[in-house]
Structure formats: structure tokens, C-alpha cells
Amino acid sequence: xxxxxxxxxxxxxxxxxxxxxxxxxxxxxxxxxxxxxxxxxxxxxxxxxxxxxxxxxxxxxxxxxxxxxxxxxxxxxxxxxxxxxxxxxxxxxxxxxxxxxxxxxxxxxxxxxxxxxxxxxxxxxxxxxxxxxxxxxxxxxxxxxxxxxxxxxxxxxxxxxxxxxxxxxxxxxxxxxxxxxxxxxxxxxxxxxxxxxxxxxxxxxxxxxxxxxxxxxxxxxxxxxxxxxxxxxxxxxxxxxxxxxxxxxxxxxxxxxxxxxxxxxxxxxxxxxxxxxxxxxxxxxxxxxxxxxxxxxxxxxxxxxxxxxxx
Length: 311
Description:
By secondary structure, the chain is an alpha/beta fold. Helices cover 37% and strands 16% of the residues.
């Protein structure tokens, strides 16, 4: 998948100190010219390589694709211990420390966007800027988890859902499950290998349990836990450049005046509403490339986008 988009990756596991969490980290070689690395973090239960189509548009960057603990081929982790926000920041900084990176841009989708915002708030010296693709997990008020997420985070039904996730299922079933999060039209248009990237890892030992454990740290009785939502005071201290590329048809939370107020509370944040859903690069890769390219061009080490498929 990554190779098809021009990414030559090296794999390593990064252990988060004082925890049993280990992230799987895929990196490209540093470029010949100085540039701030880009760290890519996908949403809950999804692989980092799902962002490869967008990462491959930026051949001049060092890319760091992070499979969060318990995600894809990263070792299982039940998300115990520290408060989730603190644990998220520890994961981000542990990856940077292990790679010897002083600071980086973060591109995060969904939960990855939430991790990016938490890191920008609590470890600002390590974050050059962040691009948030779609509604950022449960980081802002008004997010509505999908019905399947609410069921999986529950008691008895959640245990049954965990068992079912480990069972073989045909690709159309996985495509239908994705549709609940990213929209019917987007899910129908996804290439088979991208669908498989999302469905097959959950059958590995411990991955479904990891997914459910993380969901239960995010939502309870079907609603978002308030400690995971950034309040006004949190937002005002995020002084890193932040770009929100928010799909007009985002199933978790459509952009609204409330979202404009949330973004407006951050001194250097900007909202761009795009024609797409929760994973907007699946809907309009060229537009997302342009937005990210413009954002990176404004940094102190500009990176040029290649706004066309890898040859």
C-alpha cells in the first residue's frame, strides 16, 4: 500500500515509558534538505497506512506513520493507567524522542486529530503545527459516536461485538461498517486493499479487545466522556498553527457555527470546510493535498507537494 504511493518505509516499535504501550512506527528516510518531519496518526481502529495516499503527495518530507498501541500490527494494549489525554501526549513525545526529532508537524484524522490537539496543548514545544482531518475524535463538544461504537463500548453487547470483530467476515460487511463512519458513497468507492487494511487487523489476537478498551476510555453510556473534551481554557492556550479540514458531510459532527467558535478560540487556527465526509482525503485527495501543501509552505521549512498520483 505505502510502496504504491512512493513511500519506502522502515518499521520499528516504540515503547512508552512507565506503560506497557508500544506503538508501531513506520518511517521514510530523512530528506537531503532540512525539513520538519510529518507525523501521521489515523483514527481509532484504523491503520496509519490508510493515510499513505495523502502522505505520498509530499516526497520531500520525512514521514512518520504511527500505528497507535493495539492498532493494526502494533502490539495489543488495553489503554490502562494514565488519563487518556496524558497517555496520548506520552505516545506522541515517545515517538519523537525515539526518532531524535525535536519537533514535528502532526497530521491527524479523527482520534489522530484529537491526539494532535492534546499534544499541541500539553507539549507545544514539540509541535510545529497540526492538520486535523475531519472531526477530531471526541475533542470538541457535540461529537456523536456511531451506533456501533456506542454498542461496542457497552457491557454485554460490547463483549459480543468484540467476539464478532475477531471472526472472518466478507469484504462487503466491512465496507458497510466503514460506511457508518465515513459515509455510504465514500465506502463504496474505497479500493479493496484499503477496506482490507481496516478489517483484517481486528482478527489478530488482542486487537479487538484493544479497540473496545480505547472506546471505553472515550465514551460511556453512549456519550462522550467530558474529560476528553477540550474546554475554552484548553483551546485558548493552543498557540501552534492548526488547520482543520472538515468534511461538510462528516457523520460525527458537521461543521457549524459552534465549530467555528471552537476553532476561533485558538489564536492560530483556521477552518476549511471541504466537500467530503469524515475522511476527506478519500473524497477529494487533490483538495486535501492543496490544503496541506499550503499549510506546510507557510512553515519555516517549506515542503513542496506533488499534486498527482505517484508514477
